[in-house]
């Protein structure tokens, strides 16, 4: 039954970690709210340590949350346990960054893709095998791959197998956490195109996580910009690129499209001014203020809430209305 409202909603999400040897807690996710619509690609971007993977794990119920709610199609996932949780969790599947590590090298492609079907006790053996071939075709690999061992394949081929595996149980939401970051630029484009066409064909929703704004902007309908465990801005992709509303988004855009020759370099965060402060001790007031060229006294005193602006963007900046930001390099 196709429901109304967003497919997934996270509201006031909190994930804290105890710091070893310290009394304080690291608020890795510190009050994050966003929604992912049906058939929508929602991009999540932010520097290393901003809490992207922790949000993904919280949504997958792999990380206990310290506050807030995660709702899938009207059902509170964070309140489910046992069998009921497993049943709902099938509806959300994940593709990880490292295609080499996420596939068991001693498994054949058939075994890897069939495993979730077997564990989910889906169909007869013959039906499962036919489904494996169908899934392979969907991700652009032919039947000849079924007997291949994972360790004999390239990163791009393995990531296609990982995507096929994630699609096996027909999820409604696919969570891709840096799914293309470890791949060479040319291979990466192929996987991005594959994800785009799969999303169109299957009408699934995607949470696409990356530190690379260029990659996210290529795919996403809307983008959430994360900074030290909080959302700085949530906007439609086009308006975010043309008219960023948060100084941090402006900074990320200004650091963008530089041709990056090496894939290793591309896997790192963009070079932007200053280091992010520790999430264990975020600055008072606006946590971005120590790197913000527009910061004023109010920004030291008062933490800005994420609020709607005219035009539909959500932004957490006291000065959003008066600033005329652009994504162009200064
Ligand atoms: N299990 C854990 N125990 C303690 N701290 C953790 C744990 N997992 C994550 N953290 C901390 O939480 C913060 C957010 O981490 P997270 O992995 O979510 O960031 P990220 O945005 O995914 O970064 P990256 O781009 O490097 O993948 C970091 O400061 C990290 O050190
Ligand atoms: Mg991560």
Q: How many β-strand runs?
A: 12
Largest sheet entry: 8 strands, mixed
Query: What class, by secondary structure content?
Result: alpha/beta
Major beta sheet, strand line-up = 6-7-8-3-9-10-12-11
Which ions and ligands are bound to the chains? adenosine-5'-triphosphate, magnesium ion
Shape: globular
Strand content: 15-25%
Q: How many helical elements?
A: 12
Mean pLDDT over the residues? 90
Helical content class: 25-40%
Rg over CA atoms, rounded to whole Å, is: 20 Å
Label this structure with key terms.
binds magnesium ion; 330 residues; single chain; 12 helices; binds adenosine-5'-triphosphate; alpha/beta
Describe the structure.
The radius of gyration is 20 Å and the shape is globular. The protein has helices spanning 52-59, 82-89, 99-102, 109-119, 125-138, 155-167, 185-202, 213-219, 237-242, 247-254, 263-266, 297-301, and strands spanning 8-18, 25-36, 41-45, 67-72, 75-76, 92-95, 173-177, 205-210, 222-227, 230-236, 307-308, 314-315. It has 330 residues and is an alpha/beta fold. Residues 260-271 have low confidence and may be disordered. It has a domain at 99-170. Helix content is 32%, strand content 21%. α7 links the parallel β7 (173-177) and β8. The protein has an 8-stranded mixed β-sheet with strand order 6-7-8-3-9-10-12-11, with helices on both faces. It has a 4-stranded antiparallel β-sheet with strand order 2-1-4-5. The protein binds adenosine-5'-triphosphate and magnesium ion. Magnesium ion binds at residues 52-53, 177-178.
């Amino acid at each position: 039954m196709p429901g109304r409202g967003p497919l997934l909603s996270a509201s006031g999400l909190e994930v804290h970690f105890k710091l070893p040897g310290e009394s304080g807690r690291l608020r890795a996710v510190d009050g994050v709210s966003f929604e992912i619509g049906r058939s929508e690609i929602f991009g999540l971007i932010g520097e290393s340590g901003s809490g992207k993977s922790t949000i993904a794990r919280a949504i997958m119920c792999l990380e206990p949350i310290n506050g807030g709610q995660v709702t899938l199609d009207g059902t509170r996932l964070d309140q489910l346990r046992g069998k009921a949780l497993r049943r709902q969790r099938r509806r959300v599947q994940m593709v990880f960054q490292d295609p080499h590590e996420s596939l068991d090298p001693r498994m054949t492609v058939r075994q890897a893709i069939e495993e979730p079907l077997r564990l989910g006790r889906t169909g007869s053996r013959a039906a499962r095998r036919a489904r494996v071939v169908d899934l392979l075709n969907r991700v652009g690999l032919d039947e000849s791959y079924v007997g291949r061992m994972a360790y004999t394949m390239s990163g791009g081929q393995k990531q296609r197998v990982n995507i096929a595996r994630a699609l096996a149980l027909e999820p409604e939401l696919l969570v891709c956490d840096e799914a293309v970051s470890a791949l060479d630029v040319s291979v990466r484009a192929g996987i991005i195109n594959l994800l785009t066409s799969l999303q169109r064909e299957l009408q699934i929703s995607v949470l696409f996580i990356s530190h690379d704004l260029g990659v996210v902007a290529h795919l996403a309908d809307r983008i959430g910009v994360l900074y030290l465990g909080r959302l700085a801005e949530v906007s439609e992709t086009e308006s975010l690129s043309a008219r960023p509303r948060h100084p941090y988004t402006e900074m990320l855009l200004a650091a963008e499209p530089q041709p990056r020759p090496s894939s290793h370099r591309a896997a790192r965060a963009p070079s932007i001014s200053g280091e992010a402060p520790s999430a264990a001790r975020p600055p008072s007031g606006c946590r971005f203020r120590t790197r913000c060229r527009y910061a004023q006294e109010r920004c030291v005193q008062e933490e800005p809430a994420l609020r709607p602006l005219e035009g539909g963007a959500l932004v957490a900046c006291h000065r959003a209305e008066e600033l005329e930001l652009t994504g162009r390099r200064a």
